[in-house]
Backbone:
């Protein structure tokens, strides 16, 4: 049986575990504080716990920490891309970005991905496994430790489909925002899905207070199915029903990500169709000129075409932003850093 990872447990669960071992309740609070507030790298560091307890915990339980394998720093805007090694040897990517309102970290939710989006590098080798809540938290804690700083926003937009790892994602959000732990406000957490409509509704029912985002990338079923296999499972109608359910249930605005691909989804006709699809909804469209991936052969539209697309939506009263390109000198689209690393390792 897998060993229990202490960093995966909520405070009530940790309390149950420690009292079960014959320890006082406050020891759980101390341990939780060391893990999630002080972000200790090891159990040995937790000096207000008796040595015998530290020894016992180290022997009986896992304590996930990540190892930095690669760190790329942008000379343009300070963006940092990290490759971290997990305890089982797999590697994942995380990104730290500086904005005027603070520092944002983009984390992975799975090793690889099985959603198969045609423009995305993360999915090329398929899904290896889900990340645990501890492994998602540790991406943030590692970056905070490395920079000696606190970050202000977390976006679950790295490799993987977060709603395909639903239970761990929900656990992660709960722990990240817990007052006894890292205490990051729900409002500063964004979760992006490729459009698992059923799961999106379940997420709405939990009403976690997080910011939802859906990767749309096409204005109709036909085009979306060519780009994203998930669109064969859930039609545009089903996806939009789930989106409306989410907005209604939680009162939050939905962000739609739309990666612009030259001569495919960037035409005037697409803009018109997108307007018809989204009009009247409490939403924001985030346009992302597609990041060319060597294996995929997609190109970005010429600069002015991105603006033309934006203006068309704006004129129709839809909120639009163009994703600011971060760290263009260290640019590796989602999943490319890990892919290159693994290819080199294979030789
Ligand atoms: N699986 C989730 C979150 C991870 S991807 C989702 O699909 O939303 C984060 C965003 O980057 C998604 O909108 C994804 O479609 C987009 N993306 C992936 N590869 C890209 C590329 N090469 N260029 C532009 N956007 C890309």
Residues:
């Amino acid at each position: 049986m897998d060993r229990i990872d202490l960093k995966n447990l909520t405070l009530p669960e940790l309390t149950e575990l420690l009292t079960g071992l014959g320890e006082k309740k406050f020891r759980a609070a101390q341990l939780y504080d060391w893990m999630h507030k002080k972000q200790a790298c090891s159990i040995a560091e937790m000096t207000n716990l008796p040595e015998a307890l530290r020894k016992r915990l180290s022997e009986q339980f896992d304590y996930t920490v990540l190892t930095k394998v690669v760190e790329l720093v942008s000379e343009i805007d300070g963006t940092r891309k990290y490759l971290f090694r997990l305890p089982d040897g797999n590697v994942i990517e995380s990104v730290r970005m500086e904005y005027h309102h603070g520092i944002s970290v983009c984390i992975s939710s799975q090793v690889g991905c099985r959603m198969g989006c045609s423009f995305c590098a993360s999915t090329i080798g398929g899904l290896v496994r889900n990340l645990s809540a501890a492994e998602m938290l540790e991406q943030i804690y590692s970056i905070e430790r490395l920079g000696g700083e606190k970050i202000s926003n977390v976006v679950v937009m790295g490799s993987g489909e977060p709603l395909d790892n639903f239970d761990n994602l929900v656990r992660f959000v709960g722990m990240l925002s817990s007052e006894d732990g890292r205490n990051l406000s729900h409002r500063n957490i964004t979760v992006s899905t490729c459009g698992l409509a059923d799961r999106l509704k379940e997420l709405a029912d939990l009403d976690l207070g997080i910011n939802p985002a859906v990767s749309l990338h096409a204005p109709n079923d036909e085009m979306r199915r060519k780009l994203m296999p998930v669109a064969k499972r859930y039609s545009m109608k089903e996806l939009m029903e789930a989106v409306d359910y989410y907005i209604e249930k939680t009162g939050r605005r939905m962000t739609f990500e739309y990666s612009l691909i030259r001569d495919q989804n960037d035409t005037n006709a697409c803009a018109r169709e997108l307007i018809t699809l989204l009009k009247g909804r409490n939403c924001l469209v985030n346009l992302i000129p597609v990041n060319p991936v060597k294996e995929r052969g997609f190109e970005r539209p010429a600069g002015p075409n991105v603006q033309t697309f934006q203006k068309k939506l704006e004129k129709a009263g839809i909120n639009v932003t163009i994703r600011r390109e971060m760290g263009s000198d260290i640019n590796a689209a989602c999943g490319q850093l890990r892919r290159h690393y693994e290819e080199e390792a294979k030789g």
